[in-house]
Fold this protein.
Amino acid sequence: MSNQTLYGEQSYGFSYSSDELRIECSDVYRRSCRNKVVEKRISGGKSIVINPVEPVNLPQEVTSYLSIEFLKPLLLEPGNTAKVFIKFPIEIGVFVKGRATGPIDIFTLTRPKYTLYGDPKSGLICRSYESDVYTEMPETDPLKEGIISLKIKNDDEEWAEIRRTVFDGYSMKIYYGDVVSMTAEMRVINRNVAETSFIDRPLKSEMQKAIELYVARKLLIERKALLMEWGF
Amino acid sequence: MDVLSYTLYNNITVWDVLIFTVVVLTAVVVARAVRLNLKKALSDKIPRSELDILLKIIYYGIIAIAVVSALPHLGINLSGLLVAGGIAGLVIGFASQSVVSNLVSGLFLMIERPIRIGDQISVGDIAGFVEDVHILSTIVRTYDGVYIRVPNERVFTSNIINYVANVARRFEYTVGISYSSDAERAIEIIRRIVDEHPFALRNPEPAIFVDSLGDSSVNIVVRIWAPSAVWYSVKMELLWKIKKALEAEGIEIPFPQRVVWFANEGGAKIESGENVPAREDGRNNA
């Protein structure tokens, strides 16, 4: 089956099967991948929605931050703006849709890894992912990797050497179609400080907006930008 | 009706006492309802430790306002109460030094906040999870599930070890391998196992190195940083995985052993068989 048939709204009776993943959903939701089987009985609801979610939940929720380390650093001239593409890991959320929409399963076909950004006292635990920096949209497997279209602006008076970017899961806006995408901005403020934020915009037309897991569960205050205080 | 207008003392009637009681009881009911609704509304939006303190302040605040506003019905003048309160405070202070000490310590614990509800702490010889921080005492649930009430004065004046106050923490193993095993290969295997674990942090980088040449083993130290929220489960998982991986690759984790060299070149000669003379005790040599 193609990837497009996994993402989106699916009626009960839906099944999906590939080498790495098997999903069946009738009155019992059953998912198996990586030798792990999850089964849940569903009472009520009309359909299920499968879409990529903020990749900061697995194997268990310890943070809402995502750090993407660049395999090659990006050098940016003072005052310049670069538009690049980087990859991010995919976590897939399964939601049951009825009178309300709620998550029933989250899984990934990638291997999660975490890191510390900043110092142990006040730094941030982040989901860590390594990506090249691309000037053109890279090829991805939408079940494993998504693409962030990142506009980086250097507002400092010195050249900036950018080795990583950190995002807050609460403000992520994920879209899916034949690729999974987010659109983000990073502003270099000075030698050690930068600011990142997301723009609610799909990378291509005909993309659907993913159900936001974090907003759905924990709407407290609207967080728009993350200040990267410990370098980039 | 005559009962209600019956004077108890200083023009205070049964009716006044009844009003006071109704106001205070209503305040308690309202405070409980407010606390319950706030708890429902905010439980997944504010950390539990902060929510509990906020709820306590709101709950006791409502009751205190009600009591203060209803006191005139009992003929109690608040300005007089302040003077009386000053004197009473001195008396209470002397009479209940430990209570006041615990109270003040509790207030400082709430302001300084070295511990929060849910933290893993060690205070003196008590270690466990903080269940609650009351105004007079702190409740700790030990790792084996025992309830311990620790007076706040003791918490405040002791060395508090909070294992999860920082976002990340380091733990360490010492893995001994035999002298005949390849230490570089062992380090490679351990590094692979650590790298595969999602919560063994990529940065700060794990440190794996030969630390010492022991009596029976080459000792490799493994230092790993993990998120504080999950460090203990990571510690438990990784050691066993390292042990299994080393054994699977043929790297021996030795028992303590000692090689004994005999001083005489030939050593002891032990023989058995038909031609060996019988032992004096009559038992067989074989």
The two ends of chain A are 40 Å apart (CA to CA). Chain A is about 0% helix and 50% strand. The longest strand of chain A covers residues 65-76.
